[in-house]
Amino acid sequence: MLIILLGPPGAGKGTQAEFLVQKYGSAYISTGEILRSAVKKGTAMGKQAKQYMDQGQLVPDEVVVGIVQERLLEPDCGQGALLDGFPRTVVQARSLDRVLGEMNSRLDAVVHIAVEEEELIARLTGRRVCRDCGATYHVKFNPPKVRNICDQCGGELSQRDDDSLATVTERLLVYKKQTEPLIEYYQKRNLLYTIDGNQEIGAISTQIITVLDQL
Length: 215
What we know:
The chain has helices at residues 13-24, 31-41, 44-54, 61-72, 90-102, 117-125, 165-179, 181-188, 201-213; strands at residues 2-6, 27-30, 81-84, 109-114, 127-130, 136-138, 157-158, 192-196. The protein is an alpha/beta fold. Helix content is 48%, strand content 15%. α2 (31-41) crosses α3. The chain has a domain at 2-26 and 80-115 and 177-213: P-loop containing nucleotide triphosphate hydrolases (Rossmann fold, 3-Layer(aba) Sandwich).
């Protein structure tokens, strides 16, 4: 099966992806990881991507799509693949459709993990990191025994800049503008399955499995 995991930052896509990869033996395709891998391996698309990255520019859609295509052609994708972080826009989605057509392949499902914005903000702004040893906590889901003090080394816990309310709000706005239109795009193609991401992790996994096992 070829599956896309769709959802806003903080929806828990990475957690669910790990579980699904273990259960189904699918290849996990994260855009950031395969981009770095392609550059490191010096693939044709990786070399193109490196030129843009070296200049501090965004890698164009056509290069990102080409790198995804290279990855889908690797042997481990024969058992299926799980796409996380791609496509991010409707333009990328259309390009993916074209690539899959060239490969005589198809998309089986888009699993959309929906979470209320208030909950997303709480999740994303609640992370705290130890300044000394780097241990990670969350004020709600994994708090330290003593407020703002690391359980492991006694160091001071702090909030990273990218976890600030202003940064998180901006990330969610970008998602709404660029990626949220994919919900309607895949809904019209009868590929979208929406899961309530406000539930406990295990309950979310169970719902996703129920959907995928029926395909």
